[in-house]
Design goal:
CATH class of the largest domain: Mainly Beta
Helix content: 10-25%
Order of helices and strands: EHEHEEHEHEEEEEEEHEEEEEEEH
Number of strands: 19
CATH superfamily of the largest domain: Probable inorganic polyphosphate/atp-NAD kinase, domain 2
Strand order of the largest sheet: 8-7-18-15-10-11
Distance between the termini: 57 Å
Structural class: alpha+beta
Number of helices: 6
């Protein structure tokens, strides 16, 4: 009986020379190991225009179906990792991020560790960490669902015109909480809590905490503070009919849809998580300190070896 060839997706930022060179090396490692490297069709076209050796690589969705992908190796920053999550949606492949960007908060590996990380990925020497994702639906004024999507980081309801303000009602599990004017609302996962949510003044949520953050943007209200609700909570943002203008929904900064007055955006936990491949058991505190370059000078450490207090 023939063993099916393993298919491993490589996602690279084609506008970065270092990412292109790294993608070529990784594809060579995969081929040497007997695995089948796979590229997204758009990536293959862009990379093949730069180097001929990318032209014959299998294309995702054409030569290889999403459920056949074993793991996705991503070369880039957080935006490239979010794109990879979009590409493997509907399958079970975890994502291994190699940081070629700036902060690279979602990435597991820095470029200096790339070779060892890729060999471990080929050997299956990693653990899979599931991250809560969001299911997002837009309902029109009649209650009809007019758009459905998902998000790993956040779903944001924003005003479409700079000079206009949105009038919204925030609803939690079918109960109205407050009405106010604002520039928008951010509904974030723990993964996204260090992204837009963080910039908007929302709380950082540890990945092990299953919760959803709700953060108003420049609200005209006395009570419009960030909220943290349970993972099974349904958060609804209704754009009131009296709003003078339209809003827009953005998910992970990648997918958008217009929100007419009266539209309701319903956000809840998705039944399909996003999977990240992890090679090292690094503490989230260490990641925060390293990525945000937080000052920790003066820390003396635990009073006794292994002590927590």
């Amino acid at each position: 009986m023939t063993t099916p060839q393993r298919s491993i997706l490589v996602v690279a930022h084609a506008q970065r020379d270092d990412a292109v060179d790294a993608a070529a090396r990784i594809i060579g490692f995969l081929q040497a190991a007997g695995a089948r490297p796979v590229l997204a069709p758009d990536d293959r076209a862009e990379l093949a225009a730069l180097r001929d050796d990318f032209a014959g690589i299998a294309a995702l969705g054409i030569d290889v179906a999403v459920p056949e992908i074993e793991i996705a190796i991503v070369l880039g920053g957080d935006g490239t990792i979010l794109r990879a999550a979009e590409l493997v949606r509907g399958g079970t492949a975890p994502i291994l991020g190699i940081n070629m960007g700036h902060v690279g908060f979602l990435a597991e590996i820095e470029p200096d560790d790339m070779v060892g990380a890729v060999h471990r990925a080929i050997a299956g020497d990693y653990r899979v960490e599931e991250r809560l994702a969001l299911s997002v639906r837009i309902k029109d004024i009649t209650g009809k669902v007019i758009y459905s999507t998902w998000a790993l980081n956040e779903a944001t309801v924003e005003k479409a015109s700079r000079e206009r303000m949105l009038e919204v009602v925030v609803e939690i599990d079918g109960k109205p909480l407050s009405t106010f004017g604002c520039d928008g609302m951010v509904v974030s996962t723990p993964t996204g809590s260090t992204a837009y949510n963080f910039s908007a003044g929302g709380p950082v949520i540890w990945p092990t905490v299953e919760a959803i953050a709700v953060v108003p943007l420049s609200a005209h209200a006395l009570f419009a503070k960030p909220l943290v609700v349970g993972p099974e909570t349904a958060v609804t943002i209704e754009v009131l009919e009296r709003t003078n203008g339209t809003g827009i929904l953005w998910c992970d900064g990648r997918r958008s849809h217009e929100l007419p007055p009266g539209a309701r955006v319903v956000v809840r936990r998705s039944s399909e998580p996003v999977r990240l491949a992890r090679l090292h058991p690094a503490a989230f505190t260490d990641r925060l300190v390293r990525k945000f370059r937080l000052p920790v000078g003066g820390w003396r450490g635990p009073s006794e070896p292994g002590a927590m207090a």
